[in-house]
Amino acid sequence: MNSKFLVYMLKRLGMALLTIFLVIAITFFVMHAIPASPFSSEKAKSDAVIKALEIKYGFDKPLGVQFMNYLWGVLHFDFGLSTAWVGFTVSGLIVNAFGYSASIGFSAALIAIILGVLFGCLAALNRGRWPDKIIQVVTTALVSMPSFVVATLLLLTFSYVWKVLPSMGTQPGGMVMPILSLSLYPMAYITRLQRSSMLDVLSADYIRTARAKGVKSSKVIYKHALKNALTPVITYAGPMMAYILTGSMVVENIFSVPGLGRLFTNSMLRTDYMMIMGVTIFLAAMIILMNFLSDVLYKVMDPRIDLA
Amino acid sequence: MQNEKIPFKNPFSLQVDPELFKPATEEEKAQQIQTRESVSFMKDALRRLGHNRIAMACIVVILLIALIAFIVPEFYPYTYTKQDVSAKYLAPFHYSAKEQAKIDKGVSIFPHIMGTDALGRDYAIRVIYGTRISLLVGIFSALIVILVGIIYGSISGYFGGRVDNIMMRIVDIIYALPDVLIVILLSVAIKDIVSTSKNVLITKLGAGMVSIFIVFGLLYWVGMARQVRGQILSIKEQEYVLASRSIGASAARIIRKHMIPNCVSVIIIVAAMQIPSAIFTESFLSFLGLGVSIPMPSLGSLASDARAGLNSYPFLLIYPAMSIFMIVLSFNLLGNGLRDAFDPKLRS
């Protein structure tokens, strides 16, 4: 790697870290702007108890000190104690739930990328013919459906009407529908992205040159076209991560998967501010890091891009 | 064949065909006059849009949905809050025992076109109100994005240099913030404030809606600002802008008269793409219970409520799901049509 690339990477990394810091600050100050104490909504407690609790959780100190303490904690992956799940740390609960979300999200992303690229190429190579038309119609329909519509419709068809898949995510085979419902939207999006970038590349001069000098058609497509057409898909990695993480809030609730999304919505219902802050920061950091990685990967894959 | 009949002509011969040099008749003169008037970019784009049958169909569908959503509630016999415990979970076009007894007596009762929900509320009017919320969110968020994005982008692009640098760094940072998470965070945070607010409008809208609008105003305009800035940067170098500046036009005038009209296509395309994403976000929040306040329905909260009786009453899910699908699909396809019409370079 040359030094220009290194500088670019460091700049992007600095930017990503700054964004994570901003998210922490926004999260912290927004949650602390709420007038109600996190303990007032629970069962009626005496003032003395609330005061003792506030001292225990460190809510009695000045805001600046609290923020510095919180920041220091976050650096050590310590998001404090949960107020709704007494006796649990926020980071412990996050780690527990993360396994489920990660396995669903990873499978969904993998399916979306593989099938998306495949269908995208299929559509581009058959431009204007029936495979292209079918793929266009289906993907247009899929990107017009919110995750909760896809998930509930899948639940309705496969669990209630056909009774072939369990409605709970924890039952055997129960992960199929959560994965499917999370992968459909990104898959459709990647298909469209791949189709248009493949069409772009196929009309490029170097493809014509390759064909003219008699390179085999399959080699032209896989070696020359596909490799270059893949780069736009990489830039979608960040937004896809954001979609899958937020989509998991809906999907995990519908299919009762004890993952991060469900933990997040539960902590909203129970107004557990420490949990809400912790999960928000954790999810945001993952999205931002994914954006950073896809940015860097993009530059590695396509050296022609100007490192501005 | 005809060529053979024409005799060979010396290339240097001065002999010409006098037929070619006769004065033109009036009729021929009339043909030469340019009857085609000059077509402005806007007109041309609208003409192209008019030829796009899918886009036109989408406009019709959107107008139809909007018409239903805003006019039907005015004279619909049921309200979205009226509960009737004796009419729980009625299938479409069915009547409860009480209503049936009235009908037998000869009283005409308006049918429940989409049945009723778990509390015996007429479902059709709830779906219509939900649709209305979705449309309002889509349109208002587009307006916010247009307003903030244009102002920010045009200032940044016009002044360039250090101003542009700083403004674009801010945009970069905002762009990197995970917007949906911030919407969720804000709606959790302002839930308390909204529920105790004296302002009727705010309490009626609910925490989710208020926070969506705040976040759109704060975060979502960055895409628009970037596009507008890019466009302005290139227009700025054009000769007519230089000419305008040389005769002493102010910055505001140049932005208003030259820059913005030339940015219209970009603005329209970005705004059209913004609407579906706003509708998605609102329904997503309402599904999680953070959107509109109860009892105001939204397509997301209707779908969420429908989960309870999904096995026995699937129609409670199908109607809001179909409704949101139709709205988003129409806006998506219209957005594609607008992009094709206003940006011919992008046509695939």
Offer a concise description of the structure.
The complex is a heterodimer of chains A (308) and B (348). Chain A is mainly α and 308 residues long.
What does the secondary structure layout of this molecule look like, with pairings?
The complex is a heterodimer of chains A (308) and B (348).
Chain A: H1 3-32, H2 47-57, H3 63-75, H4 90-125, H5 130-142, H6 147-161, H7 176-202, H8 205-212, H9 217-229, H10 231-235, H11 237-254, H12 260-269, H13 273-301
Chain B: H1 2-5, H2 26-32, H3 41-51, H4 53-75, H5 97-104, H6 123-159, H7 161-176, H8 179-196, H9 200-205, H10 207-220, H11 222-236, H12 239-246, H13 251-287, H14 299-306, H15 315-342
Helix pairs in contact in B: 3-15, 4-6, 4-15, 6-7, 6-10, 6-11, 6-13, 6-15, 7-11, 8-10, 10-13, 11-13, 13-14, 13-15, 14-15
Protein architecture, described:
The complex is a heterodimer of chains A (308) and B (348). Chain A is an all-alpha fold and 308 residues long. Helices cover 74% and strands 0% of the residues of chain A. Chain A has helices spanning 3-32, 47-57, 63-75, 90-125, 130-142, 147-161, 176-202, 205-212, 217-229, 231-235, 237-254, 260-269, 273-301. The mean pLDDT of chain A is 86. Chain B is mainly α and 348 residues long. Chain B has helices spanning 2-5, 26-32, 41-51, 53-75, 97-104, 123-159, 161-176, 179-196, 200-205, 207-220, 222-236, 239-246, 251-287, 299-306, 315-342. Chain A binds chain B through residues 15-16, 18-19, 22-23, 26-27, 30-31, 33-36, 140-141, 143-149, 152-153, 155-156, 160, 196, 199, 242, 246, 249-250, 253-254, 264-265, 268-269, 271, 276, 280, 283-284, 287-288, 291, and chain B through 172-173, 176-178, 180-182, 184-186, 188-189, 192-193, 276, 280, 283-284, 287-290, 300, 303-304, 306-307, 310-311, 314, 317, 321, 324-325, 328-329, 332-333, 348.
